[in-house]
Amino acid sequence: MNPVHTRCDVAIVGAGIIGAACAEACAAGGLNTVLIDADFPGGGITACGMGHIVVMDDSAAQWALTTRSRELWMARATSLPDNIEYDACGTLWIAANRTEMDAVEEKAAMYQQHDVHAQILNSAELARAEPELIAAMSGALLVRDDAVIYPPAAARHFAASAAVLGAVMRFGQRVQALEPGRIHFADGTILDAERIVLAAGLASNDLLPNLPLRARKGHLVISDRYPGRVRHQLVELGYLHSAHASDADSVAFNVQPRRNGQILIGSSRQFDVTDTTIDAPLLAQMLERAVGFLPFLRDVQVLRSWTGLRPATLDGLPLIGPSTQHASIWLATGHEGLGITTATATAELIAAQLLDRPCAIPAAPYWPARFAAEPTNVAT
Amino acid sequence: MSIEPTLSTDILVIGAGPAGIAAAVSAAECGRRVLLIDDNPQAGGQIWRGTNIDQGPVSARGWLQRLESSNLQHINGCRAIFLADSNLLIADLHGQRCAIRFEHAILTSGARELYLPFPGWTLPGVTGAGGLQALIKSGLDVSGKRIVIAGSGPLLLAVAATARRASAHVLCIAEQTRAKARRNFAFGLWRHPGKLTQAIRLRAQSIGAPYSADAWITQAEGDDRLAAVWLKHGTRHRRIECDLLACGFGLVPNLDLAQMFGCTITGGAIAVDKSQRSSRQNVFAAGESTGIGGIDKALIEGRIAGFAAAGSADKAAVLLAVRARTQAFAKTLAKAFALRDELRTLATPETFFCRCEDVPLSAVRAMPNMRQAKLASRCGMGACQGRICGSAAEFLFGWRDTASTRPPFTATALSNLISPSIEASQK
Ligand SMILES: Cc1cc2nc3c(=O)[nH]c(=O)nc-3n(C[C@H](O)[C@H](O)[C@H](O)COP(=O)(O)OP(=O)(O)OC[C@H]3O[C@@H](n4cnc5c(N)ncnc54)[C@H](O)[C@@H]3O)c2cc1C
Ligand SMILES: Cc1cc2nc3c(=O)[nH]c(=O)nc-3n(C[C@H](O)[C@H](O)[C@H](O)COP(=O)(O)OP(=O)(O)OC[C@H]3O[C@@H](n4cnc5c(N)ncnc54)[C@H](O)[C@@H]3O)c2cc1C
Questions:
Q1: Is this complex scored with an ipTM above 0.85?
Q2: In terms of Cα–Cα distance, which of B399, B121, B115 is closest to B250?
């Protein structure tokens, strides 16, 4: 058998929202690009996520990546196809008590200092903004420019736009193995690529072992249509601090209005759980928490629940840059619960570095090399 | 510690149609503890629901009386929602969550109608065939209304009979199957005397309603509600003004429960062995959910499943020959009413393929499979969770929607997914 043999500048393995966005940016930069997926664009974890485009401030690097990403989303919002359902509904970070209200004030000051729109709502203003929310809340931080999208359609769109820019699509083709400069497909064919970008989510580990990646499982529930009952993405401020920060199983109030009136209800986090079945007690706990904030949810009709495994790293930041194993094999993965948001700046960082162009934000905080000094498999 | 109301039983039967009633009664006769649940306010399933125990057809009366006098536990208004573990079912009982612990389960959840998209199929005034029957049985006034019944299968006759009894004008019954196939089916009925009498009775009651084979719906017209339908009859087109169109293209097994229990599905039905046992050791299935075959098959399979689940397989042995005949009948039925290719091309690009999410056919036609179509267009993600468009896609494009086995089986109040023990611990 004579294997089909082709060449390209950059081959991107994985057409989730991350890989698809990278393909678009690389093709736009004039690189001869191939985008590969075992299945089809957006069919992986990208199909399981909530699609909240959100600025987060756990660390300076996270802040830089999420604010830049959101800027890039906003810049193209009006040119996105309708089926991406881009809805700039904003985020309300709900403060349940006085201490959390102090945090709201700190945040507001920090956001404003960086020219990111943020507004403090007191208890009464919050009640007007979200009439269904229980009255006992102290207030909230409104982050006006956060948005909601439908992620699988976005991945599809990025891939289609990469194709228009000349990238070659190879879907339904599983990559079996990588070596520097060369991709081996499961069907025996080979593709030579000067650089490889591995964006296969958690499965990246199968192709490049010992990556500092671990699964962080999440549950979601979708309701029937209740237009207007929830108006912003609602997240409890406690989400940032307490439960979700630790390694223990946790739930938090995180609820999203879909454009068609459906309500998407999250969220849960479990480290290193890799089966995707519903954990009924944890699901119950998550829903109970949501009802605690939005009592009307108790009576809504729910249609379905599902889970997804977020590709997480050990420090909460993604892996964007050359791998420590081979200089020509790059990584674009480990985005955990922010990959929908940060796909845009990730793609920008990858393309800029591959093309030796200046980056819009410092690239080093996301380089995989930051883990090189540490033992790679801390989790076990 | 749970404060949840919990029922417990040896044998749990889910669905109180003919199959479920026969299964439950048979298992109870063997001395086992049996619990029969159904999500409707009354037992009887699709065919016997609303039957008056003193007046209905003989076999219905017989079984409903046996159900009454049996010492099994029987709860209506109880809908299975999800499986908490392999022996614990969570159900919605009149809006309240309850838990049911069981040793063996018998799935008798029946079938649903197949709807196919055609221009105008979402207009008010267009219903399913069985859907109209159910509406009439639950009190919809159709007297004097002009009704066209279209689609395929013996159910069309049953609907016509119900409509006529309710004083509607049935203008036409349009059966898509070719006249020859149907004649062969009618001859085949001689081997199934029970069916024949039923068929004749139904025909007799629907006399006065013109019955056309080789005729199928091509379009429903109207501005904001149905005004007329277009039928194709052989090579001719006909327009008929009417108030209601009842349209169904046969039945498809309900598989959601079986998927949730992890039972193997083959050829679009629950796979069972000769004692009606599924691929799961403690789960049996009977009736339409193991393959469309009508009431006789449902009853005999139900009895066998009931005996087998009760551990009295010997009692089931004598029933096997009868079952073989009803299963042969099911095959004849499927052949006689096989859907014609023309039905695959009724919808235009603008016709809604998924009526819950308003997804036009054009948005999905180029897709290679249901999952990809779903993610790209959101078809099947609405209220019915792809029950309608998923079955249609199977016929139209040959797509199988691969197991979506996540709770809940069907839409339910969110509170039903919250376990009371957790509530208690947080208070
Ligand atoms: C419950 C939940 C809620 C979330 N909510 C949000 C949110 O609100 N906002 C947000 O920003 N993020 C959210 N996320 C996170 C977000 O979904 C992920 O970070 C993001 O989708 C990751 O995208 P990806 O492209 O890295 O991975 P994937 O989408 O999994 O893509 C990887 C692709 O690689 C392909 N692949 C794998 N192996 C191979 C191989 N050997 N050969 C070829 N192809 C291969 C797969 O087919 C797949 O398409 C959420 C995640 C979860 C689970
Ligand atoms: C709409 C419709 C109308 C029909 N009308 C006729 C007719 O007039 N004459 C005729 O000969 N045949 C008719 N049939 C065919 C009918 O299916 C069979 O004749 C026979 O009733 C099959 O018996 P069964 O017990 O297998 O299923 P069914 O009679 O369908 O009984 C299944 C029962 O299970 C219940 N159920 C399903 N899921 C759950 C759940 N999750 N929790 C609790 N309960 C559940 C259903 O509500 C139903 O009561 C009709 C079928 C349909 C779909």
A1: yes
A2: B115
